[in-house]
Design goal:
Number of domains: 2
Number of strands: 7
Order of helices and strands: HHHHHHHHEHEEEEEEH
Structural class: alpha+beta
Number of helices: 10
Strand content: 15-25%
CATH architecture of the largest domain: 2-Layer Sandwich
Radius of gyration: 23 Å
CATH class of the largest domain: Alpha Beta
CATH topology of the largest domain: Phosphorylase Kinase, domain 1
Strand order of the largest sheet: 1-2-3-4-7-6-5
């Protein structure tokens, strides 16, 4: 059994819905694969967390009465109509599905609560989404002269793109994302096996601000602005490595600033 096969069966295995043969195959695979075992453990912990009674509250009587009144239908048509899922329930179901798909990173968010910084929270969310299969890059290239033109016509600004391979942070591609309701450019770099996402978008004030680093849900986030652009770098590398990356990107002497 491969990891891709295990990913398809792991939820059914968790719910004891597999036959004996498939269940044994998944169990044997997880004995040899630490990544799939960690994924299974995270799902099991998440399911347990979502079943805690303190997450559920009885709706106020006034709301229950209003819902009953607005959803009542004549007895003659009650059987013919398929009951609809209330919007709040549908939203909750979608949220739970997103948690399950996102795995351990979103489990950590559930445990620790949301961040007080909305912008950083959006960047963390975008970084986590990008780590899911086939979400990391829209354009795959180590050549800055391929990545930079790809953004033309897709954004109302020209992002700054640099090749930092000589500094130990090779460029591997880029993609579009959204922060605070606006489209932004994201450059994707690597530090050994780690992914670094660099978000950037224009600023109107022109005020330059130095690097500020925070730790959010296991990720290091470094923010800074120059005269025209806001930058946010995020990764699970250690803070010193990410600061080194940010300094290399800010250094105008490296690769002619990708002009």
């Amino acid at each position: 059994m491969t990891c891709d096969d295990a990913k398809l069966l792991i939820h059914a295995y968790l719910d004891d819905e597999l036959d004996a043969g498939d269940s044994a195959s998944v169990a044997r695979h997880m004995d040899d694969c630490t990544a799939c075992k960690a994924r299974f453990d995270a799902y099991a912990t998440l399911r347990k967390a979502l079943s805690q009674p303190e997450l559920y509250h009885r709706a106020p009587d006034a709301l229950r009465q209003h819902w009953t009144a607005t959803t009542a239908v004549p007895a003659t048509t009650r059987r013919a109509r398929r009951p609809r899922m209330p919007l709040s329930v549908a939203a909750a179901a979608g949220f739970v599905a997103a948690l399950l798909l996102s795995g351990p990173a979103w489990l950590h968010l559930l445990r620790s609560g949301h961040t007080g910084d909305a912008l950083v929270a959006e960047v963390v969310s975008g970084h986590v989404r990008s780590l899911q299969q086939q979400h990391l890059m829209d354009v795959v290239s180590t050549n800055q002269h391929t990545v930079k033109p790809w953004f033309e016509g897709k954004l109302d600004f020209a992002p700054r793109v640099k090749d930092l391979a000589d500094e130990g942070f090779p460029l591997v591609g880029g993609r579009l994302d959204a922060v605070e309701g606006h489209s932004v450019a994201v450059l994707v770099y690597k530090r050994r096996l780690h992914v670094i996402n660099l978000f950037q978008w224009p600023v109107e004030t022109g005020a330059v601000s130095p690097q500020t680093a925070t730790q959010e849900h296991g990720y290091t986030v470094i923010r800074w602005t120059d005269a025209s652009m806001q930058y946010v770098a995020i990764s699970d590398v250690n803070e010193s490595d990410l600061r080194q990356f940010a300094l290399a990107f800010q250094n105008d002497g490296s690769a002619a600033a990708a002009r």
